[in-house]
Amino acid sequence: MAQELVLLCLAAFAAGFIDAIVGGGGLLQTPAILLVLPHYPVATLLGTTKIPSLAGTSIAAYKYSRQVKFNLKVLVACASMAFLAALLGAYSVSMINNQVIKPVILVVLIGVAVYTYFNKQFGIQKHKNHSAAKQVALAATFGLVIGFYDGLIGPGTGSFLILVFIAVLGFDFIGASAHAKMVNLATNLTAILYFSSTGHILFQYALPMAVFNIAGAFFGARLALLKGNKFVRIFFLIVVFGTILKFAFELLKR
C-alpha cells in the first residue's frame, strides 16, 4: 500500500497544481488511480478522487478570492445550477451512453484549441458588456449544461467553465479561472455526496491525496496570479490539448 500511496500522492500534487491554474487536473489524477488500483471498482476509484479534488479546489478558490473580485450574482447562478445538474448527470450515467457524446466533445475541444491558439487576445483582456440580468441568465444556463456534463462524463469540466467565462461572459483568464474554481467546488461537492452515499470512497487513499492536492493547488494558484493572463493562456492550451488526446485515444481504442 505504501508504494501505491506515494504514486497517488504525487499524481494528486500534479493534478492540484494544474487544476488550480486552468482546470483539467482529473486528466492526471483519474488515470493514475485507475492504473495504481485496478482491483477496485471504477465507481469507487472515481469517488475517491473527488475528496482530493474538492480539497485542492477549495485552496485554489481561497487564493484567488484574495486577489480577484467575484461577480457574486453570476457565480451563485452558475454554481447553483451546476450543483443540481451534476446530480442529474451522475444519476443519468447508467441510462445514457456517454460514448455517443464523446465524439461531439472532441470536435468542440479541437475548435476551442484552434480558436485560442490563433486569437492571441482571447482571455487576455476583458470584453463583452452584457447587462447584469443577461449575465446571470447565461451563467445559469451554462452552469446547467456543464454541471450535467461533469456528472455524466467529467474530464475537461474546468476547461469548459473557463471557456464559458471568457467567450460568453467576457472575463479574462485570471477572472475566469477564479470563478471556475468556485463552480467546481459545487460540482465536486455533488459528486462526494453521491459517491459517499453509495459507499464508493476509499478514505485511506483519499485523505493523504487531499493533502498533496492542496499543496499543488497552493503553488498553482500562486504561480497563476504571479505570472498573469498570458501564462494561464499557454497552460490552458496545454491542458485542452491533453484533453483532446485523451478523448481521441478512448475513441480509437473502441
Automatic annotation (TrEMBL):
<dbReference type="Pfam" id="PF01925">
    <property type="entry name" value="TauE"/>
</dbReference>
<feature type="transmembrane region" description="Helical">
    <location>
        <begin position="131"/>
        <end position="149"/>
    </location>
</feature>
<dbReference type="InterPro" id="IPR052017">
    <property type="entry name" value="TSUP"/>
</dbReference>
<keyword id="KW-0472">Membrane</keyword>
<keyword id="KW-1133">Transmembrane helix</keyword>
<feature type="transmembrane region" description="Helical">
    <location>
        <begin position="100"/>
        <end position="119"/>
    </location>
</feature>
<keyword id="KW-1003">Cell membrane</keyword>
<feature type="transmembrane region" description="Helical">
    <location>
        <begin position="44"/>
        <end position="62"/>
    </location>
</feature>
<feature type="transmembrane region" description="Helical">
    <location>
        <begin position="231"/>
        <end position="249"/>
    </location>
</feature>
<keyword id="KW-0812">Transmembrane</keyword>
<feature type="transmembrane region" description="Helical">
    <location>
        <begin position="161"/>
        <end position="180"/>
    </location>
</feature>
<feature type="transmembrane region" description="Helical">
    <location>
        <begin position="74"/>
        <end position="94"/>
    </location>
</feature>
<protein>
    <recommendedName>
        <fullName>Probable membrane transporter protein</fullName>
    </recommendedName>
</protein>
<dbReference type="InterPro" id="IPR002781">
    <property type="entry name" value="TM_pro_TauE-like"/>
</dbReference>
<keyword id="KW-0813">Transport</keyword>
<feature type="transmembrane region" description="Helical">
    <location>
        <begin position="201"/>
        <end position="225"/>
    </location>
</feature>
<comment type="similarity">
    <text>Belongs to the 4-toluene sulfonate uptake permease (TSUP) (TC 2.A.102) family.</text>
</comment>
